[in-house]
Amino acid sequence: QVQLVESGGGSVQAGGSLRLSCAASGDPSSRKSMAWFRQAPGKGREGVARISQGSTYYADSVKGRFTISQDNAKNTVYLQMNSLKPEDTALYYCAATSAVYSWWPLLLPRDFGYWGQGTQVTVSS
């Protein structure tokens, strides 16, 4: 069993920054790949970034602005978000899976079995 707790969301103006944190607990073998997803009102859940055995993946919409990182000693995954845009407004979820996706060129919700409750990010223009 894996528990994921997100924090760090909030409201910022366009161009600002936020850092999201995801504190993980439970079976480490079930957390070989960690990711961030987001869901805006009326839209589907979208993959944002993934980290798996040190390899990272980013959606095109956030490349160059967002950075995913992992502190194994703290069992925490971070998402540093810079140059935020109004279109980044969404509920951001942390997710985990036992699978290794270090090279997989897709980031899909169906590939992750453990989810946090989400943290809201609102970017105003």
Tally of individual helices: 0
Q: What is the string of SSEs from the N terminus onward?
A: EEEEEEEEEEE
- Sheet/helix structural class: mainly beta
| Mean of all residue-level pLDDT scores | 96
Q: Low-confidence parts lasting 5 or more residues at pLDDT below 50?
A: none
Q: Work out the strand percent.
A: over 45%
Largest sheet: 7 strands, mixed
* Rg calc: 13 Å
The share of residues in helices is: under 10%
Strand count: 11
Please state the overall shape, judged from the principal axes of the Cα atoms.
globular
Describe the protein's architecture and organization:
- With 125 residues, the chain is mainly β.
- The protein is built from no helices and eleven strands.
- The strands form two sheets. Strands 2, 4, 5, 6, 9, 10 and 11 form a seven-stranded mixed β-sheet that branches.
- A hairpin with a 6-residue loop joins β4 (33-39) and β5.
Helices and strands in order:
Elements: E1 2-7, E2 10-13, E3 18-26, E4 33-39, E5 46-52, E6 55-58, E7 66-71, E8 76-81, E9 90-97, E10 114-115, E11 119-124
Parallel strand pairs: 2-11
Antiparallel strand pairs: 1-3, 3-8, 4-5, 4-9, 5-6, 7-8, 9-10, 9-11
Summary of the model, kept short:
This protein has 125 residues and is mostly beta strands. It has no helices and eleven strands.
Keywords:
four-stranded antiparallel beta sheet; 125 residues; seven-stranded mixed beta sheet; mainly beta
